[in-house]
Amino acid sequence: MSDDQLKTVFTSFCAFGAGSKDAQATMDNAKFGKLFRDLKLYDKKFTSTDTDIIFSRPEVKSKTERKITFEQFKKALALCAEKKYGSKDEVGKLIEKICAGKGPGTSGATKQSKTGGVDRMTDTSQYTGSHKERFDEGGKGKGLEGRKDFDAQAAEGYVGGYKGKDTYSDKKH
């Protein structure tokens, strides 16, 4: 596999989650682990703990660095191949699997519901009770006016529908 293909995969994982202006050619530990997780390279012998340890080793980067470059990434892959296959010479096998895989995925992300009940929940024409008052005939929300009770009795401290206003006697028995 060519260095260009590996660099393409490296940059796609570096750019994952960053805005277009924030995209850099360096990879942090979380994206390094995501690469191995998304490409299903973990097994019983090679785990996410191993990639965390390898990412922090002095052969890969100094203690003060938080991200690695492409050259440091290739050094880390040699250490990963040694852990996974028993020899640094097997790095080509690991690189081949990385280049054959897809780019970063969004597994576990929240997806839009496809069930039929959602349409009824968002149809304002079917609302009843106090919720019905919050929308006009076109289904557009009335805003604050639709949420507040501007009844005169409510402003004076009485609950809605109370018929005995001003009937309380001030006489002491």
From TrEMBL:
Region annotated Disordered, chain positions: 103-148
InterPro entries (alphabetical): EF-hand-dom_pair (IPR011992), TPP/p25 (IPR008907)
Pfam family, one: p25-alpha
One GO MF term attached to the UniProt entry: tubulin binding
Domain of life: Eukaryota
Biased composition (Basic and acidic residues): 130-148
GO cellular component, one term: microtubule
Alphabetical GO biological process terms: microtubule bundle formation; microtubule polymerization; positive regulation of protein polymerization
Protein family: Belongs to the TPPP family.
Name this protein carries in UniProt: Tubulin polymerization-promoting protein member 2
Species the sequence originates in: Desmophyllum pertusum
Gene: TPPP2
